[in-house]
């Protein structure tokens, strides 16, 4: 190993890095596909089951809660036994849950299997982040997380487009067969291409550290707590959009499923632009300062949506600030991940799991509020998004305290 190697991943060739990121990206992409692919089908599911919009939105809530629960289980488990076994078991659960959802007789059973889908898909997200942290640190960690995000951002861009196009030929149930096939392919790729990344000495240490000790290390870290709150608020704002957008743009603005899929893809490109720009900005600006700008942009964009509705600016008055809000989420994601994981290499799986559990758990609780208020305009969506942005900004300034965060190393 070269003398200049600081982290295990530094010795990987360019080809090995590309393959590593592609496989991990596809695994993490299983989560966004699970969430986003069936969004264009919300109105169809509502009609088929004869239930309210809020009832169908709760199936999305079940998925996000499942993500949270799954990550709490998979993360500490992967710190104890290694990364591969938890990944394979979780993904297998996802495949079985997809098949159950495809045959669900009512919205309650669908919600149960959606929750299990979330539990299973959580494995890919947690283990991928932990594997990257096993191999990289400092600015290299930012670069690798942003490259992982570059691959995984394609998932929310492609998922609703693929889902909306499939709905031209199949019923919504067939979307879950597609997801089951995706999960089965990922199991095969993980078996062939992913080796264990957790060092043997760390596995030995983790086996002697209690779960309580690992969580204590996280809960006594003010930066981690503050960043976890910011992450939860950013995800909640994004999931408010995810859970309400299909009803808003198809039922209120009259979009077809295909037009909605195109719009969703365009907005997802904003996430792509944001996370790649953010990674480059970390070379000259600390990630905590990037979060300062993005949280403020989200506050302004969300209340611009309310102003656009109130002043009668029409569809452009919603779409432009919405794009800015979503692009700001892209700026925030790599910064949140690196600040949360930078000081927790020895409990990377637990840190990633807690971060994800808080993100998806809070998002799952917040996102249905818009449906309960009623989706007759974009104003309720903008209001809830604005509240989440304000809380995230407050956490940055009063909990994280940007001036106290140490600079990243090369």
Can you characterise this structure?
The protein has helices at residues 14-36, 42-49, 53-81, 84-102, 107-135, 138-166, 174-193, 200-208, 211-219, 222-252, 257-281, 287-310, 314-341, 348-366, 369-373, 379-400. The chain has 410 residues and is an all-alpha fold. The chain starts with 13 loop residues before the first helix and ends in a 10-residue tail after the last helix. It is a multi-pass membrane protein. Keywords: Cell membrane, Membrane, Transmembrane, Transmembrane helix, Transport. InterPro entries: Efflux_drug-R_Bcr/CmlA, MFS, MFS_dom, MFS_trans_sf, Sugar_transporter_CS.
Task: Give a brief rundown of this model.
It is found in: Cell membrane. The chain has about 400 residues and is an all-alpha fold.
Helical fraction: over 70%
Distance between the termini: 18 Å
Mean pLDDT: 85
Q: What is the name of the CATH architecture?
A: Up-down Bundle
List the helices and strands and how they pair.
Layout: H1 14-36, H2 42-49, H3 53-81, H4 84-102, H5 107-135, H6 138-166, H7 174-193, H8 200-208, H9 211-219, H10 222-252, H11 257-281, H12 287-310, H13 314-341, H14 348-366, H15 369-373, H16 379-400
Domain Major facilitator superfamily (MFS) profile: 17-404
GO molecular function: xenobiotic transmembrane transporter activity
InterPro entries: Efflux_drug-R_Bcr/CmlA, MFS, MFS_dom, MFS_trans_sf, Sugar_transporter_CS
């Amino acid at each position: 190993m070269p003398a200049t190697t600081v982290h295990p991943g530094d010795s990987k060739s360019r080809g090995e890095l590309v393959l590593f990121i592609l496989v991990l990206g596809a695994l993490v992409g299983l989560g966004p596909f699970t969430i986003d692919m069936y969004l264009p089908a919300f109105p169809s599911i509502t009609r088929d089951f004869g239930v309210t919009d809020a009832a169908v939105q709760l199936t999305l809530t079940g998925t996000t809660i499942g993500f949270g629960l799954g990550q709490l289980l998979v993360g500490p488990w992967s710190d104890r036994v290694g990364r591969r076994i938890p990944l394979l078991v979780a993904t297998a659960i996802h495949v079985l849950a997809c098949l159950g959802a495809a045959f669900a007789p009512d919205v309650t059973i669908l919600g149960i299997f959606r929750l299990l889908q979330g539990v299973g898909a959580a494995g890919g997200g947690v283990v991928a982040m932990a594997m990257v942290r096993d191999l990289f640190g400092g600015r290299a960690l930012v670069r690798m997380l942003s490259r992982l995000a570059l691959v995984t951002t394609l998932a929310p861009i492609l998922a609703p487009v693929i889902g909306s196009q499939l709905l031209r030929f199949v019923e919504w149930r067939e979307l879950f067969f597609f997801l089951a096939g995706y999960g089965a392919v990922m199991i095969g790729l993980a078996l062939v291409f992913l080796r264990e990344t957790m060092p043997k000495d760390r596995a030995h240490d983790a086996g002697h550290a209690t779960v309580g000790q690992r969580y204590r290390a996280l809960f006594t870290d003010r930066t981690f707590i503050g960043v976890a709150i910011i992450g939860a608020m950013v995800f909640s704002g994004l999931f408010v959009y995810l859970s309400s957008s299909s009803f808003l743009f198809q039922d209120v603005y009259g979009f077809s499923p295909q037009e909605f899929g195109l719009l969703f893809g365009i907005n997802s490109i904003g996430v792509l632009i944001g996370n790649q720009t953010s990674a480059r900005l970390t070379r000259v600006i600390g990630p905590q300062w990037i979060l300062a700008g993005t949280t403020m942009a989200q506050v302004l964009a969300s209340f611009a949506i309310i102003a656009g509705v109130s002043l009668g600016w029409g569809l452009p008055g919603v779409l432009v600030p919405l794009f800015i809000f979503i692009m700001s989420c892209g700026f925030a994601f790599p910064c949140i991940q690196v600040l949360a994981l930078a000081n927790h290499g020895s409990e990377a799986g637990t840190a990633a799991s807690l971060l994800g559990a808080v993100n998806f758990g809070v998002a799952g609780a917040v996102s249905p509020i818009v449906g309960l208020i009623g989706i007759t305009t974009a104003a309720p969506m903008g209001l809830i998004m604005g509240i989440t942005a304000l809380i995230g900004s407050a956490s940055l300034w009063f909990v994280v305290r940007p001036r106290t965060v140490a600079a990243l190393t090369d």
